[in-house]
Amino acid sequence: MMFTLPRIRLTSGKPCMLPMAFVGGVGVMGVGLGSISTSPWLVFGALLLGGVGGYASRYICGISPQTVAAASTQHEQTLVLASLLEDVSADLEATIGEIINQFLDLAAKAGNQSELLGKTAGAAEKLDTGTEVISMDEFSHAVAEEAQEIVSTIVWICKSMMQVTYQLEELQKHTKTINGFMEQVDFIAKQTDLLALNAAIEAARAGDHGRGFMVVAEEVRKLANESSRFSVEIRREITAITKGLDESFGSVKEVVGQDMNPLIERKVKIEKLVELLITQKQGVLQMLELASADVGKMSNNIFSIVQGLQFQDRIKQRLEHVIEPLKAMAEVNKPQKANGAKVKATAVNGMSESYTMQAEREAHARALTKAEGENTPPEQPKPVKHKTPQDDMGDNIDLF
Amino acid sequence: MSKTILTVDDSASIRQMVSFTLKQAGYTVVEADDGANGLNVAKSNGGIGLVITDLNMPNMNGLELIRNLRTLPAYKFTPILMLTTESDDSKKMEGKQAGATGWIVKPFNPEQLLKVIQKVMPV
């Protein structure tokens, strides 16, 4: 039942609202079909009301009842309606397709964002030191241990320095003792020189007999002078050592005299800063995790919206099932058609054969009943479906 | 079993949704907008592991597509799922007789679709 129908485009295609009375179906049919009041036409009007409804109201912008009425014959009016419905279907499909594209893009981007946020949160939880990846807890413990180690080492150094000061003090005492001994050595050398001089004088008095002794006295004097000279050298060296010891003692005392409390306070401060850093990082981590979860939910929500847009496929089919009979009716309404009434009835009754949804068949039956003024027949009990192990997928799924 | 799935539907929005759902789950998806094109794609692509097809389509409907696919040795045992707005039992019976593996009534739930696919095409 296919007709070549000129595409009558009366709209700009832009959505706008029309009075619902017109688009709702009855109004359209009232104006469009004029005096036709037989049951099949009412059926058709009711179907339009149920099938097209609000979607048409958004898409048949600018199409007034007058426009439809302006067509000169019922044949033309029916063709206009069929064309309009085709436009509605095409616009709906194009628009929904675009919306789905955008939503799917949005859902994909939201999914990527969620993944990135998750990765960022994961990265924030760990610290890459270059040789290993450690957790923030491990980092905190490591910093605290290092700080403790530094403080302990410094305290140990200070203790050792104290020991050094005691030893330097002992050395200073020894150098003073040695200085005292060197004075004794000087005294002995001078006394020896004096004794040798006296011995030389006495040897001179003894004449030839004392000549040998003179030589001995002279040698003793030389030794005394050598001792005196060495004593001066030794004292000079000892003085230098004493000076060095004094300077070392001063330096060490300066180190040992340092107050350890600021160092310990700094260690505590470092530990607190690390703790604060970890707390803040955990806060950021929680926010990242929350953001990741939210964006993930957003992606799911967007996808749910897209799922909801599947209605377009159903609407498209329902519109097609109205358009085809409309075209048939247009054919019937050609003036030269003799057996119009018969074909008209066949067209409407034949609509149900083209249906692809149970909902359509039920709507058709209800409309027929209403049009013929009969009571709605009692609803037939639905056949009980016996569950098979394959039925756990859902009510809308059958596996053969 | 190949992870490539052919989806045949004259509704672009349904094809988009099926493709998106399957791609998200890691499948490779090829599309066709009616039965005739679906058959051509199936013939030219030997690696298809599952076919999802609509029932009512121009040029060649879903039942004809299934019957044609079942004559091809490569698709004799390939799982074929109908994804359609039709829920009439007699139509389902026709689908079963034509060689369909399962019948899903639109609108579909992506999770359900993936469950069914995992059942009929275990990895």
How would you explain this protein's 3D organization?
The complex is a heterodimer of chains A (400) and B (123). With 400 residues, chain A is mainly α. Chain A has helices at residues 20-23, 26-32, 39-51, 53-59, 65-70, 74-125, 136-205, 211-256, 261-308, 311-332, 340-354, 358-371; strands at residues 126-128, 133-135, 397-399. A two-stranded antiparallel sheet of chain A has the order 1-2. In chain A, a hairpin with a 4-residue loop joins strand 1 (126-128) and strand 2 (133-135). In chain A, helix 6 packs antiparallel against helix 9 (261-308). The longest helix of chain A has 70 residues, at 136-205. Chain A is rod-shaped. Mean pLDDT of chain A is 73; it is low at 1-62. Chain B has 123 residues and is of the alpha/beta class. In chain B, 44% of the residues lie in helices and 20% in strands. Chain B has a five-stranded parallel β-sheet, sandwiched between helices. In chain B, helix 2 packs parallel to helix 3. The longest helix of chain B is centred in the first third of the chain and has 13 residues, at 12-24. The chains are: A mainly alpha (400), B alpha/beta (123). Chain A binds chain B through residues 93, 96-97, 100-101, 104, 107-108, 111, 303, 306-314, 316-317, 356-358, 383, 390, 393-394, 396-400, and chain B through 9, 11-14, 16-17, 20, 24, 55-56, 84-89, 92, 95-96, 100-110, 112, 115-116, 119-120.
List keywords for this structure.
heterodimer, A: 400 residues, mainly alpha, two-stranded antiparallel ribbon, 12 helices, 2% strand, rod-shaped, B: 123 residues, alpha/beta, five-stranded parallel β-sheet, 5 helices, 5 strands, globular
Order of helix and strand elements from N to C terminus of chain A: HHHHHHEEHHHHHHE
Radius of gyration based on Cα positions of chain A: 58 Å
The SSE order of chain B reads EHEHEHEHEH
Class by SSE composition of chain A: mainly alpha
Inertia-based shape of chain A: rod-shaped
Number of strands of chain A: 3
Q: How much helicity do the residues of chain A have?
A: over 70%
User: Major sheet of chain B: size, sense and barrel closure?
Assistant: 5 strands, parallel
Distance between the termini of chain B: 6 Å
**Order of strands in the sheet with most strands of chain A:** 1-2
Q: What about the largest sheet of chain A? A: 2 strands, antiparallel
Overall residue-averaged pLDDT value of chain A: 73
Class by SSE composition of chain B: alpha/beta
Mean pLDDT of chain B: 92
Number of helices, where a helix is a run of at least 4 consecutive DSSP H or I residues of chain B: 5
Report the sheet-strand fraction of chain A: under 5%
Give the oligomeric state: heterodimer
List the strand order in the largest sheet of chain B. 2-1-3-4-5
Strand content of chain B: 15-25%
Number of helices of chain A: 12
Radius of gyration of chain B: 13 Å
